[in-house]
Specification:
about 525 residues; alpha+beta; five-stranded antiparallel beta sheet; membrane; transmembrane
Length: about 525
């Protein structure tokens, strides 16, 4: 009992240490942080104005209907919105942002604990695994150097994906974690989802013989349907716009494999857990699990890997492949450009989202076999000390406000080309007395228009595909102006209402909501029957 208490105390100390930058005055910032801080402001406005589902920015000073949540997986911003709600809307945006980072790190800890408990069935080593994971270099780099909340949240569910897919193959407990975690990763971060699919493809191919079973195939099919239905609110509009091809990100964010290779890190930086200084990767970020995890992982490979079963060896093999692929020694230039999707990783080291939790889950086998309390204590203390390395700048270099930056990823291609001039254009349109906004309700915007003899009018809204426009309650076509705004020809005086196609947003949102609630009720009823 005394030992367990000490371990629980160390777990609490660990959580305090890794969220410490979120608890002190001021905040931390980065290029990615500006994007997520902008998303936070958007979700606050959307919640306060009851826009459901929360998709478009119609409320900020220079709004033009940009949508983050229709293209960037929304789970992390939902966490931010939930934080605002839990604190009864009393938090400043800065504190809301910091608490959201802390909450996601705590989710990382809990997820690894649950996953390690399922795999190793040992409370002590599940806690140790959670401590090592939450103090790992790449995780804390995502939290405090890059400050990529989407990838950080996706990484939180990676341990569940690894354990769940392993259980599906081996028949062990925990296979339900597979579809749940895959869905959560999809609505957290798309590059992490691509890394997850790549991992699952390799894992299932290596273990194909164990998957050729009626029950397993049936479960895989059910899992696919679970992922599709639970994430439909995000994937339906995303796929629609991908097919239309009118969004900048779909053209510009996929890099060539040759370019991907140039973002690989030095292998010495990965092994010794030092910040990147070479290649095209931003200087100062940490692409490594950290020196402590690396040492124990190497020990596991040398001492215990040969004792592992076939599934664990396949996880180890994929993990090593992903580690090498994250460095500049991997020949990405030899990969055919005809291979789709993987290029949307952009940076090869995003595979670390899978590598780091896989390393932690595997190295616990060695710690369990040694079962030394003093060694475990030494490892935990060392992990806590080294965790300050990726957190150092976020503690020392504080700022009072995260700057605003206008990100162009999810603009339409035409709007993006004219983005430098469009803000002035939009301001002029909004000050035009002949086109006045009379109402904004649940994402529908109503304009009172005095068109006089004008043959066309431009509205201050970016012309995404999927909008529906009515003029005095009658449907009217719209086109895209030369600068990417909604252009209406031959309007009549009166009311123009712009709303987004509910078949693409509200209905998929409702489908996902009903499906998730139904699954929850089903599981509650089923667990209740088992107790009886």
């Amino acid at each position: 009992m005394h030992i367990n208490f000490r371990l629980y105390l160390l777990a609490i100390i660990t959580l305090f240490v890794v969220i410490y930058p979120c608890l002190i005055d001021g905040t931390f910032s980065s290029y990615d942080a500006m994007a997520h801080y902008g998303r936070l402001k958007d979700i606050n406005n959307q919640i306060m104005n009851l826009q459901i589902p929360p998709l478009f920015d119609y409320y900020s000073d220079d709004w033009y209907g940009l949508s983050w949540n229709m293209f960037y997986p929304p789970l992390s911003v939902y966490v931010m919105g939930l934080v605002k709600f839990v604190f009864l809307f009393s938090l400043s945006e800065q504190n809301q942002f910091k608490i959201s980072v802390a909450v996601i790190i705590i989710i990382c800890f809990i997820s690894m604990y649950i996953s390690a408990m399922k795999l190793h069935k040992n409370n002590r080593y599940a806690i140790i695994a959670a401590i090592l994971f939450s103090t790992s270099g790449y995780l804390l780099s995502d939290a405090y150097i890059r400050i990529d909340l989407g990838e950080l949240l996706a990484m939180a569910f990676a341990p569940m994906l690894i354990v769940g897919s392993r259980a599906l193959i081996s028949g062990d407990e925990g296979k339900a974690l597979f579809p749940i975690s895959l869905s959560l990763i999809l609505i957290s971060n798309i590059p992490s989802f691509i890394a997850s699919i790549l991992y699952l493809t390799l894992l299932f191919l290596i273990n194909i013989k164990k998957l050729i079973d009626i029950k397993t195939i049936k479960y895989l099919i059910i899992s696919v349907f679970f992922v599709i239905l639970s994430t439909a609110f995000f994937t339906v509009p995303l796929i629609y716009h991908f097919i239309k091809g009118n969004v900048f990100a779909f053209h510009a964010l996929a890099v060539s494999y040759n370019t991907m290779g140039k973002f690989g890190v030095e292998i010495s930086e990965m092994i010794f857990g030092t910040k990147s200084q070479t290649g095209l990767t931003t200087k100062g970020i940490l692409i490594s699990s950290g020196i402590i995890i690396n040492i124990i992982f190497i020990f596991y490979i040398v001492r215990d890997a040969k004792k592992s079963n076939h599934v664990d060896l396949s996880i180890l093999s994929i993990c090593l492949l992903f580690l090498i692929a994250s460095t500049n020694i991997f020949p990405w230039y030899m990969v055919s450009e005809k291979i789709p999707v993987v290029r949307f990783l952009q940076f090869p080291w995003r595979l670390m989202v899978i590598c780091v939790p896989a390393m932690v889950l595997l190295l616990v086998y060695s710690l369990k076999s040694i079962n030394s309390k003093s060694l475990n204590f030494l490892i935990i203390i060392s992990a806590l000390i080294t965790s300050f390395y990726p957190m150092h700048n976020s503690i020392i270099n504080r700022t009072n406000e995260i700057p605003h930056h206008e990100f162009h990823d999810y603009m339409t291609t035409v709007y993006e080309k004219n983005k430098n001039n469009n803000i002035d254009t939009i301001r002029n349109l909004k000050s035009n007395k002949k086109i006045e906004i009379s109402n904004i309700k649940n994402g529908d915007i109503t304009f009172t228009v005095d068109s006089e003899s004008k043959k066309e009018i431009t509205l201050p809204i970016m012309a995404y595909d999927g909008y529906k426009v009515t003029n005095n309650d009658l449907p009217i076509d719209y086109t895209q102006s030369d600068n990417g705004l909604i252009l209406i020809k031959n309007p009549s005086n009166g009311i123009i209402t712009v709303s987004y196609n509910k078949m693409l947003t509200t209905i998929p949102f409702f489908v996902s909501f009903v499906f998730i609630v139904s699954c929850f009720i089903y599981l509650r009823v089923r667990s209740g029957k088992k107790k009886i």
